[in-house]
Amino acid sequence: MDGLPRYWSTLFDVTSSTSTERKRSGERSVKITDSKNNGGIGLRSARIPVTPGLKYEAYAYAYIEGGSAAVYIEFLNEAGGELTLANAGITSLNEWKEARVSSIAPPTAKYATVRLYLGAANVGTTYFDDAGFRDVLPDLSANLINGQFELIDHGRTSNWRAVDGIVAWQFTFMLCSLIDLLKMMSLNIGGFVWGMKRTSTPRKALRSA
């Protein structure tokens, strides 16, 4: 076993180090051993700059030999004071399981950290690996009504209407002469030609509400 992983610091009275005993990927994981049931312990990542109002997600995989574990997002103000915490727990033993938690950065948030944590009542050993942090893109389809086209009214897709006159691209299969071959980009296979041509035939389309 080696020392603490780079860019991580200890929380409270923790026994922790990188380890090659168990790993989900790569050569190492981080091992945390909790021998007391009177206080939580864990590791905290380096501070990560965030933007207030945006949604962020933290995740990690844990291999729990005893007890339980959790992954936290912690938002901090510019002075480093804690603003909010959000967490996701894991209780499955003797297998790699993912914990994933998301939260919106509060108005005065300047930084976030990720905590790999064993709770106050916990006693046991947990390995963590493949931790990550990212911003969560908004769901742009949330404001689109019937984007999955499952709603039907009178045999037609609800909240969509037909429009005419679009330009479409078509693949056309045809038997071409040499002149045809020179007029269009194509590939001749066994005397047949696959070609692509641009057409402006009016076609039906759908427009959302």
The total of helices stands at: 1
SS class: mainly beta
At the first level of CATH, what is the class of the largest domain?
Mainly Beta
Order of helices and strands: EEEEEEEEEEEEEEEHEEE
- Number of domains as seen in the coordinates: 2
In helices, the fraction of residues equals under 10%
Care to count the β-strands?
18
| Uncertain residue ranges | 165-179, 185-200
Q: What is the name of the CATH topology of the largest domain?
A: Jelly Rolls
End-to-end CA span: 60 Å
Radius of gyration: 28 Å
What characteristic shape results from the CA principal axes?
elongated
Per CATH, the superfamily of the largest domain is Galactose-binding domain-like
Main pleated-sheet profile:
6 strands, antiparallel
Mean pLDDT: 77
Estimated share of beta-strand residues: over 45%
CATH architecture of the largest domain: Sandwich
Describe the structure concisely:
The chain is mostly beta strands. 3% of the residues lie in helices and 53% in strands.
